[in-house]
Write a structure and sequence with these properties.
The chain folds into three domains: about 5-90 and about 170-235, Rossmann fold; about 105-160, no CATH class; about 245-340, no CATH class. It has eleven helices and twelve strands. Helix 5 (about 125-140) packs across helix 6 (about 155-165). With about 350 residues, it is an alpha/beta fold. An eight-stranded mixed beta sheet has the order 6-7-8-3-9-10-12-11, with helices on both faces. It has a four-stranded antiparallel beta sheet with strand order 2-1-4-5, with helices on one face. The relative contact order is 0.13.
């Protein structure tokens, strides 16, 4: 497979009055043409920032370092003008809340015309209309709704319109940020079928950002688990779900509710403040398997299997763990270890 996107040691941070927020910290990822990578983790772990950072859509005052290679071209060092040319025809984005992204004063027809003419001014009005209706039709939106306003559609239909707007220019890479949030299970299933169609028929590379592990299991080839701005674990979705290597991944899966759930499970505590994250492994204050080495030293990425990687001292490398470092650390000892 050919990698459409290669992210190498990407760091994204914001300057605030309280200090620098390290929202994304040395993240590396690859997405192949025609594949779906699921990005999961709790709120505040940096998933949406990573998605927008890949496309160069960071707010003013944000900074980026590292490489985001799209077909070999580094998006981090591109000028804003060059990035704008790529967004749409090459790089697409589906936002979380369609009602906040669709202009309530414009008809759906106007949204499509504006999007297409911005990047392909040579098309005639007839061609613009034909392409728009064809893309909407693939999303299940009939031509009779083309001249209606956003408020005349249900939440699920607005989300399908947002997907159609992202696809009308036929991008090679699509970032979908929580595309099924607040949708009922029937509409969610429809959206998943649409995403599967993109993968199979258009060879689109898709980064799917979501909290829903069920969606990842159904729709994704690979999964990356993000915590406190870092990738804790990454690998084939089926393997990660069957045998999670990182304690955070394991706790996330245990917290998932299913028809067989009899006792609710949650991870104690909350994701850390990214202005001053915990020393060593960022997950160690909440980790059930915390060892003495965890608060003292940053974990080193290892490959427990050829196609997987994990950022956890449980998997070594043993040569880097100091003597006594593998001894369990009691919960009341964590604060003492951090201070030391």
């Amino acid at each position: 497979m050919t990698a459409i996107l290669e992210v190498r040691d990407l760091r994204l941070w914001y300057g605030t009055a309280r200090g620098s927020v390290r929202a994304v910290d040395r993240v590396s990822l690859e997405i192949d043409a025609g594949s779906v990578l699921g990005l999961v983790g709790e709120s505040g772990c940096g998933k949406s920032t990573l998605g927008r950072g890949i496309l160069g859509l960071l707010p003013e005052g944000a900074r980026a370092d590292g490489e985001v290679l799209y077909k070999g071209r580094n998006l981090v060092t591109m000028s804003p003008r060059e990035l704008r040319r790529l967004r749409g025809p090459d790089l697409g984005l589906i936002f979380q809340e369609p009602m906040t992204r669709l202009n309530p004063l414009l008809r759906i027809e106007d949204h499509f015309r504006e999007t297409i003419e911005q990047h392909d001014s040579k098309l005639t009005p007839k061609d613009v209309r034909r392409r728009s209706l064809d893309t909407l039709g693939r999303m299940g939106i009939p031509p009779t709704r083309f001249r209606q306003y956003p408020h005349e559609f249900s939440g699920g239909m607005r989300q399908r319109i947002m997907i159609a707007l992202a696809l009308v220019l036929r991008p090679s890479l699509l970032v979908a940020d929580e595309p099924t949030t607040s949708l009922d299970v029937i509409v969610e299933a429809q959206i998943l079928r649409i995403l599967a169609d993109l993968k199979e028929n258009f060879d689109t590379a898709l980064l799917l950002i979501t909290h829903n592990l069920g969606i990842v299991a159904e729709a994704c080839d690979r999964v990356a688990v993000m915590y406190a701005g870092q990738i804790a674990e990454e690998g084939p979705a089926r393997d990660v779900f069957a045998d999670p290597k990182h304690p955070y991944t394991r706790e996330l899966l245990r917290s998932t509710i299913s028809l067989d759930t009899k006792v609710l499970h949650s991870i104690p505590g909350a994701p850390p403040n990214l202005i001053s994250p915990p020393s060593g492994c960022h997950f160690h204050p909440r980790c059930p398997d915390v060892m003495r080495v965890c608060p003292a030293h940053d974990p080193i990425e290892t490959q427990p299997d050829p196609d997987r990687r994990v950022l956890c001292w449980l998997h070594g490398p043993e040569r880097e763990i100091p003597d006594g470092g593998t001894a369990p650390l009691e919960r009341e000892q964590i604060a003492v270890a951090e201070e030391a």
